[in-house]
From TrEMBL:
Protein name as annotated: Protein yippee-like
PANTHER family attached to this UniProt entry: PROTEIN YIPPEE-LIKE CG15309-RELATED
Domain annotation Yippee: ranges: 12-109
Family: Belongs to the yippee family.
GO molecular function, one term: metal ion binding
Cross-referenced InterPro entries: Yippee, Yippee/Mis18/Cereblon, Yippee_fam
UniProt keyword terms in alphabetical order: Metal-binding, Zinc
Natural source organism: Camellia sinensis var. sinensis
NAD listed as a keyword: no
Pfam families: Yippee-Mis18
Amino acid sequence: MGRLFVVTLEGKIYSCKHCRTHLALCEDIVSKHFHCRHGKAYLFNKVVNVTVGEGEERMMMTGLHTVADIFCVGCGSILGWKYETAHEKSQKYKEGKSVLERPKFKKTMAAKVELGSGGRDNDDGIGDGYLYAIGVYIWL
């Protein structure tokens, strides 16, 4: 297996409950009125740091859909599913969107923290600019 590259998000985000890998921005929520086997679920326009499994046809509460399970790239846990195809015309808005199961993720705050003065440390230019660190805070 090669090197794992993970996208780091900033602001109000959702992250994996098990390994804290960033998954989605709060602003990408389409709906909080979805349900899964384990309770509530949210529909997102975009999710990151997931792998997509094989597509399969499933009969959902809203009709027949072609969906694929999505998994966290950090720990491999199943997070929900991605809508590949909606067979009902009224459900086409779901295509390409992903559902994350609420018990599988946490709402967190990722903040960019600036360290350093931004000035030169010496004449060779080393030390120019800022050093950035990402801090993750869990909302209770």
